[in-house]
Amino acid sequence: MDSPLETDLESSSDRPRVEEYMTQDVATVSADETVGAVARRIIESEDHNGFPVTDGRRVEGFVSARDLLLKDPDTPLFRVMSEELIVAHPEMKVTDAARVILRSGIQKLPVVDDAGNLVGIISNADVIRSQIERATPEKVGKLKRTLETIHDIEAAEERRTVSLADLTPTQSTVYADELEGREYELERGLAEPLVVIDNGGDLLLADGHHRVMAARRAGIEEMDAYVIVLPGRIDLGMARTARKEGLETLADVDIVDYARHPLVEATERLTDE
């Protein structure tokens, strides 16, 4: 088992690369298309506010909704597109791509290979997802090591899709205002996987109560989860707490809509002072 020091001291080769998180199926436009035609594509799309302009697979420019504003609908794109492009390489570290996105103020970077051919596109949402997926395994590893140390066991770790109906909550309340943020993340595929403990067949929800309740409210029945599998049924403290508070299913979790999240309240008090 890796020590915490070894986990923290990851080499740069272990860091996620753009090619791991970019979208490979990229919608493009050609330079001879008109402003009006591309504007209609943007209006009718839920995901696009601009397109790479290509000749075959070679990138010639990028056109955004801003580039099209107040332009004659019959104007060809090569007259309005941005030709000075900021692009990423597939082997670029995601953290470096994130810096470019944040500093440039753009939302998406075309990804090109050594020959200048378009191979994908990476967005600010992809960057967020890459960081979420790296943070969660660290959280799971810490919990797994803690359980192994306390109970003198050796646990396993799995990635599963779990049914929300099978989960036993270990937290009695969630906050309505925070659910809105979790719903936003779910809609955009940015929610962290849950962290679940399989205690002899009982699935205890260790982390992700707001995500689960937001999903339940949205009619989602299954979610992605990291599952720590114990070698047998163990008398866990969180299981005792759940029993004491009468928590058997997600229906037993109260949604508090008359109070703000404690951290938000604390921040507001500090601001007021």
Can you put this structure into words, describing what you see?
The protein is an alpha/beta fold and 273 residues long. The chain is 37% helix and 22% strand. The protein has ten helices and eleven strands. It has helices at residues 4-8, 18-21, 35-44, 65-68, 94-104, 124-151, 176-187, 209-217, 237-244, 262-272, and strands at residues 50-55, 58-64, 108-112, 118-123, 156-163, 167-168, 173-175, 194-199, 202-207, 222-229, 254-256. α7 crosses α8 (209-217). It folds into two domains: 4-126, CBS-domain; 153-272, Conserved hypothetical protein from pyrococcus furiosus pfu- 392566-001, ParB domain (Alpha-Beta Complex). The radius of gyration is 24 Å and the shape is elongated.
The total strand number stands at: 11
CATH fold-level label of the largest domain = CBS-domain
Oligomer: single chain
The total number of structural domains is 2
Taken in chain order, the helices and strands follow as: HHHEEHHEEHEEEHEEHEHEH
Under CATH at level 1, the class of the largest domain stands as Alpha Beta
DSSP helical segment count: 10
What would you call the structural class?
alpha/beta
Mean pLDDT comes to 86
**Mind describing the biggest β-sheet?**
5 strands, mixed
CATH architecture term of the largest domain: Roll
Helical coverage, percent range: 25-40%
